[in-house]
User: Fold this.
Amino acid sequence: MPSAARTLFEKLWDRHVVAQPPGQPALLYVDLHLIHEVTSPQAFAGMRAAGRKLRRPDKTFATMDHDVPTDARPFKILDSEADAQLQALAENFRDFGVRLFDLDSPEQGIVHVIAPELGLTQPGMTIVCGDSHTSTHGAFGALAFGIGTSEVEHVFATQCLWQAKPRTLRLNLEGELPRGATAKDLILHVIGSMGTAGATGHVVEYAGSAVRALSMEERMTVCNMSIEAGARAGMVAPDSVTVDYLRGRRFAPGGGSGLEFEQAAAHWLSLASDPGASFDSERTFAAGEVAPQVTWGTSPGMVAPVTGAVPDPAGIADASARQAAARALEYMALRPGTPIRDIAVDRVFIGSCTNARIEDLERAAALARGRRVASGVRAMVVPGSQAVRREAEARGLDRIFTAAGFEWRQPGCSMCLGMNPDILQPGERCASTSNRNFEGRQGAGGRTHLVSPAMAAAAAIAGHFVDVREFA
Amino acid sequence: MIPFTKLRGRVAVLDRAHVDTDQIIPKQFLKTTGRAGLGRGLFFDWRSDPDFVLNQPASQGAAILIAGENFGCGSSREHAAWALLDFGIRCLIAPSFGDIFYNNCTKNGLLPVRLPAEAVRGLQTAREIEVDLAAQTAGGYRFEIDPFRKQCLLEGLDDIALTLRHQAAIAAFEASQP
Assistant:
């Protein structure tokens, strides 16, 4: 009996093995291949050079997100290199027959925001994209992971990938998140505790009562940052929350309704890990202990509760971690012992594939309503997609933000990675709802603190970090 | 892909943990539609510091980079592997690597060698070391590598050509899907 019990991951893996030659990794079938402009040009060039055609253009979808300016449209892209990259994408997609949600499309947006909202992302699928945050789609009970450009080309030509079977790790997140703590705080807390290489080589299944209680958008935030714990992928078993989210979505089975949809839903619900299924490792976290989090360093694991202080590297036992912390504090221009709440910000960025969905914007707007951004602070809100932007405007969130002094911008990756005009200037300090606080990530010399949307909005208004639980 | 068999080369030591791919090749170099010439962007922000290891005379012409744990974590950008290769690095030695980066290296003939932290420290003082993929040794230490990846690296095999031998299985799989 126990031998027959399989994990969610194993069920998906087994269903997608096309070939398993002895002594080799498995050849795994890919159900959905998502593309953006930055990591695909060289793959298309390879295809052209070899005279190959895409095996399944019908399973391949593209958008433009990384390079695009978030100014009012239509705009002229002033950066000739970015322009060439976007042109190349448009050309490649015409030539190879792939569906592209380009800048004029009402569906355009960040690849990890639009695929779920269009219903392209479905439970039980294997999903890849030349982007490490592809782990986001695991929130639906899909096996979704980032790949490099060589692998993008491989999927173009074969619709498959060679994959060594990863190990499995179940993270049991139990209990209830306290008021003021969000999915972002939960995942930052987990990464802070496990370290940024804590899940390397593993596929994580997030389980437990705290995960079941999360909305789909919150599950996406958690799975999104699996890569920041080093994981290959993160997953949540499909349940009624998943099914309800997908109902009525355009690319869901049967267009999201009718018998075809109900049959698919019944199958999705059967994918959960069997009772007694075993994982290579398991850890349990108490969600009730999670406070709003703020990163203080240059790695997402360098994080503290907002009530805490910048740590003293001298107190870190491990030599390598001590050295890394000291280096991070130098880069971040922070002194050990500084209360997190005393750190002042110059910029605030609310957006990215981690936190640019409608619930994120609602939480930020709830803090911004009737208040003003502190003088000297520049704050921007960048919705994750045109659909999110439309919905936010229908709810009046744009007016709340602009009345408070936030910029309300067009969808794109924006200041998460600084590949477009939205960047930090050297020395600027930013409260950001994105996923990486690496040196120079948001602009050379820029200093990033990762936080939840509510914490970011509160920092914009106060001009420094504040505990949203006490923000009246 | 260029095959990797045996290499005797000069060593450069980057003794930092968790070096992410944003550091290896910053965003402004990702707007290219080609793979060539990325060496100029390698560790771009750090290379403005004259004391940075790759600016040291002893590191000139290095073919082997000895790095810290979790090297290449973060973004999936294969530009990181292309930049290292373009700079002349053919082999990386570290206690651990980011998963996607590790994969990307092996698709480009750049050999990532995982060794225990003590062994990596032991190699940091070497000027030059020999890496033999067939024998799975680096500077006298034995390392593990997946046999399939090893074969592909040794022969410089193109993955796609290899996979296309399984055309029939792929077609059969597709036919079996609802």
Remarks:
- The mean pLDDT of chain B is 96.
- The radius of gyration of chain B is 17 Å.
